[in-house]
User: Which sequence fits this backbone?
């Protein structure tokens, strides 16, 4: 059985790391390099670094920053934000990213995922599926442009299309639960995980170790990502893996 990964998420905005609630990230939480060095010492499975303003500002990835971080990052690194073309994907991989997350671009150019997978391999292509639940109907849809534009599409449809196009992984993020530490959107995670064969990374809402256990046992996630939990509590990735192992979930120790 594959090991379940525990993945801290770093949100980069302008000059440093931030965290907030509901994709409104405003609270400074340190520097990317400092975070990378801390997580190196803690031996985490992977890191996700998302530039949360690149797409809205109409700019590409900060390649210099990624290059500097990759030199010090001794774990797989997924980078997203501002990726608009096949050249951006290649530039990030050459700068040191191990995987590239495609969100808005994957929705705007339906063939980009396929071309990236064909050129660089499915293992480095992650499709970020950001969701919000409509309060009036309860229906969940996929949003782009840092959670500001509603596509009206169901996340299962988007995830299946990404898999068919050659994506190697789905990063499933709940904007509603982001930063709340009230638990993952288990219903959406379950629906998407059941619909695709590629790994699904649950993200958005994790506040305690039991949330991670639920995302795997109930939701069927292959990996769990968290940000606020690691920024604002004393909980650690190592303790998270110990709690998951105690619950019978295989993890990398």
Assistant:
């Amino acid at each position: 059985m594959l090991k379940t990964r525990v993945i801290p998420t770093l949100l980069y905005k302008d000059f440093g790391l931030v965290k907030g609630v509901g994709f409104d990230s405003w609270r400074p939480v340190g520097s990317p390099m400092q975070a990378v060095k801390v997580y190196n010492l803690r031996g985490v499975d992977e890191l996700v670094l998302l530039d949360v303003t690149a797409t809205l500002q109409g700019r590409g990835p900060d390649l210099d920053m990624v290059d500097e971080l990759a030199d010090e990052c001794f774990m797989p690194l997924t980078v997203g934000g501002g990726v608009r073309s096949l050249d951006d994907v290649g530039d990030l991989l050459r700068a040191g990213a191990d995987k590239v997350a495609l969100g808005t671009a994957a929705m705007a150019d339906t063939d980009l995922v396929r071309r990236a997978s064909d050129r660089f391999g499915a293992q480095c292509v992650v499709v970020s599926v950001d969701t919000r639940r409509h309060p009036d109907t309860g229906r969940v849809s996929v949003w782009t442009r840092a959670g500001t534009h509603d596509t009206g599409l169901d996340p299962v449809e988007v995830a299946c299309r990404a898999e068919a196009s050659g994506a190697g992984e789905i990063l499933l993020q709940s904007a509603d639960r982001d930063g709340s530490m009230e638990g993952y959107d288990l219903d959406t995670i379950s629906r998407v995980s059941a619909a695709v064969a590629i790994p699904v990374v649950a993200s958005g809402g994790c506040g305690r170790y039991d949330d991670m256990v639920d995302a795997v046992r109930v939701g069927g996630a292959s990996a769990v990502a968290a940000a606020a939990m690691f920024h604002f509590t004393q909980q650690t990735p190592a303790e998270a893996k110990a709690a998951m192992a105690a619950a019978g979930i295989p993890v990398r120790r």
Notes: Residues 128 and 155 are 10 Å apart (CA to CA). The mean pLDDT is 96.
